[in-house]
Write a structure and sequence with these properties.
The protein is mainly α. The chain has a single domain (24-378), classed as ABC transporter transmembrane region fold. Helices cover 72% and strands 6% of the residues. The protein contains eleven helices and two strands. It has helices spanning 24-31, 35-58, 60-68, 90-102, 107-156, 160-165, 168-210, 214-231, 233-261, 267-322, 328-369; strands at residues 389-399, 402-413. The chain has a two-stranded antiparallel ribbon with strand order 1-2. A hairpin with a 2-residue loop joins strand 1 and strand 2. Helix 5 (107-156) packs antiparallel against helix 7, helix 7 (168-210) runs antiparallel to helix 9 and helix 9 (233-261) packs across helix 11. Residues 1-13 have low confidence and may be disordered.
Length: 416
């Protein structure tokens, strides 16, 4: 580094911001114009999740026919007897609905009809899935466009003191990288959040109505996933913040150095800046790796919890089957519904972490919007505002021990 009495162009001010002190209301204000469209997207996700559950329920008669054969279509309950919404009664009730409305009684015919209903519902699920993701993608680009324009316009009215402290590369990273990542995260959060919430609620109710003892298994599964989310909250905030902070700082360093090299080009300066750039890239890779580990370590942990839940459901169903309190078809449905439950339950618990990640992604943008504008800061300063002259005396700067300029004296007289 340069000597203590030597100014170095390579030095730049600390660019870290106090994320804890950022005004959260600035983040909330960003989304206010989009509440209606976000609500519509949530509704589409709700419809998709409802159809997903209906698809699962519609296939239960198929499993009953395959595993029970002709017995599945005998002694069907009348339509006046509504089922109590459990895995033991729903298959036979749906078969009764098919038989009464179509007049079909042959197991093979009912099997084909059940398969057809399942396929139709599955197509509707895929259509709703496409609409939700298409709507999310369109909304994401609209929000990015509008928010980038708002933040850019705000920056244009910030004072020069702020713009001198925070380089263009840092500001660009906050506008582009942070907003892009946050909006992608938000739309995914809405779709997964609403769909997982409804699916989890219906499946949990279905298991509870089938056997109340399954409440313990479902409750322990939910508690385990919530505990994982709570334990990882600190890592979610710190590693997300560090990753986006380092990306912005690397962008600032790169942009400033490329701009400076166009004005002052020396061999020693090139070597010095390349070394500093290499150090920053290595640091960025280290932080990005820690962020990646945080993102990926959640998957095997939640997968392990889900497998424990599935084993518990399987053992419970097998115990009931061996003791004659459960038939083969219902046993298979237990496993099918249990498998359908665990993934949405994990996604539902993960919303806690995703919400904290979203806030961390947007604190840099909120920090910019929280800065006070100065209307006069963008106006030209009249030459008449100078008293006599602009003078600098004895200015020097160097790269480490290699001086570039020494004792520069410059004077610009009033009116020059």
């Amino acid at each position: 580094m340069a000597d203590s009495d030597t100014s170095t162009l390579s030095e730049q001010p600390e660019l870290n911001i106090d994320h804890a002190a950022v005004n959260v209301r600035q983040i909330v204000r960003l989304f206010q114009p989009y509440y209606g469209r976000l609500l519509l997207l949530s509704f589409v996700a709700f419809v998709m999740s409802f159809l997903t559950v209906m698809t699962t329920v519609a296939i239960t008669p198929l499993a009953s026919i395959v595993l029970s054969g002709v017995d599945a279509t005998t002694d069907l309950p009348p339509l006046s007897d509504l089922p109590s919404f459990n895995l033991e009664e729903i298959p036979s009730y749906l078969l009764s609905v098919w038989a009464n409305f179509t007049g079909l009684t042959d197991p093979w015919d009912l099997l084909l009809l059940t398969s057809l209903v399942y396929l139709v519902l599955a197509l509707f699920v895929q259509a709703a899935n496409f609409l939700s993701h298409y709507g999310a993608e369109v909304l994401r680009h609209v929000m990015i466009r509008d928010m980038e324009h708002e933040v850019f316009s705000h920056i244009m009215h910030l004072p020069l003191s702020f713009l001198n402290k925070y380089p263009a590369g840092w500001l660009h990273s906050r506008i582009r990288e942070d907003l892009n990542a946050a909006m992608t995260h938000l739309t995914k959060l809405i779709i997964d959040g609403f769909s997982s919430s409804l699916v989890s609620i219906i499946y949990v109710v279905l298991l509870i109505r089938t056997d109340f003892r399954l409440t313990v298994i479902a409750g322990l599964a939910g508690l385990a996933h919530m505990t994982i989310s709570r334990v990882m909250t600190k890592a979610a905030v710190s590693r997300t913040t560090a990753n986006f902070d380092m990306t912005a700082q690397l962008g600032a360093f790169t942009q400033e150095r490329l701009a400076n090299i166009r004005e002052i080009k020396t061999r020693v300066g090139e070597d010095f800046e390349k070394a500093r750039f290499w150090e920053r890239v290595k640091e960025q890779v280290r932080i990005a790796a820690r962020y990646f580990i945080y993102l990926r370590v959640k998957l095997p942990i939640r997968w392990s919890v889900n497998r424990v839940v599935m084993v518990a459901v399987m053992l419970f169903a097998a115990f009931e089957l061996l003791n004659g309190r459960l038939d083969t078809a219902t046993f298979a449905l237990f496993l099918f519904v249990g498998q359908s439950l665990v993934d949405p339950l994990a996604k539902l618990a993960d919303i806690i972490l995703q919400t904290r990640e979203l806030r961390s992604m947007l604190t840099g943008v909120a920090f910019l919007l929280d800065q006070q504008t100065e209307p006069s800061g963008t106006q030209a300063i009249s030459i008449g505002d100078f008293q006599q002259a602009i003078e600098v005396d004895g200015i020097s700067f160097a790269y480490e021990d290699a001086p570039v300029l020494e004792n520069i004296t410059l004077s610009i007289k009033k009116g020059a």
